[in-house]
Design goal:
The protein has about 220 residues and is an alpha/beta fold. Helices cover about 50% and strands about 15% of the residues. The two termini are about 35 Å apart. The structure holds SN-glycerol-3-phosphate.
Length: about 220
């Protein structure tokens, strides 16, 4: 499963990149706003520092506006993926851009049929928001399971990109279900490597090593 970071914070992205396991980045207007910097600055830096796909979101909610914005966003670099919300005009824009070979990430997906239409329109990625479904007492991971099954039944090539990830369990389940990608906040990426038994075991090894001096 590919691992993207869900962040617009350059330091976080750099740290995740240094871990050697980062495959791409997703941003959204809320994440960019949190940085307190301009979109242009942030977008340019991220696109240049990451080799993999970087999702940049359009703000327009009408077809013409989305297409215009997508053309501007593409200028940041070859690895830009246009993030488009799953509303009717967004679906139309997805079809137009995908037909031109431009990669689209359909965001704000909350239902299997939204995901199926996104795939039919040619989206490169579908972003179902699991945490936000959990927040309203629906099962976010069940949506992932259903979409993976539908895409497999009809051999859609759209990649399932699990978004709104809140904890490592979401990732274990995503991998178990065969999701293609998960986009993960930096705090959760760090949690993935933590296990108390690893820390306790290491302390014990280091303590015991003092009893049997070892070169190198
Ligand atoms: O990038 C979109 C998504 O991951 C947002 O997550 O935590 O704001 O629901 P969250």
């Amino acid at each position: 499963m590919k691992l993207f970071i869900d962040s617009a914070d350059i330091r976080e992205i750099q740290e995740a990149k240094d871990m050697g396991v980062l495959d791409g980045v997703t941003t959204n207007p809320s994440l960019v706003a949190k940085t307190g910097r301009t979109f242009e600055e942030v977008a340019q830096e991220i696109v240049e520092m990451v080799d993999g796909p970087v999702s940049l979101e359009v703000l327009a909610t009408d077809y013409d506006g989305m297409i215009r914005e997508a053309e501007e966003l593409m200028k940041y670099g070859d690895n830009v993926v246009i993030k488009i919300p799953l509303i009717l005009d967004g679906l139309k824009a997805t079809k137009t851009l995908s037909d031109q070979g431009i990669k689209v990430n359909n965001t704000l997906c909350f239902s299997p049929m939204q995901a199926m239409l996104a795939a039919k329109a040619g989206a490169a990625y579908i972003s179902p928001f699991v945490g936000r479904l959990d927040d309203i007492s629906q099962d976010g991971m069940e949506l992932i399971d259903t979409i993976v099954q539908i895409y497999s039944n009809y051999m859609f090539e759209t990649e399932v990109l699990v978004a709104s990830v809140r904890n490592p369990i979401h990732l274990v389940e995503s991998a178990r279900m065969g999701a293609d990608v998960a986009t993960v906040p930096f705090g959760v990426i760090k949690q993935l490597m933590k296990h108390p038994l690893t820390d306790i075991g290491l302390q014990k090894f280091l303590a015991d090593a003092k009893k049997t001096p070892q070169k190198g």
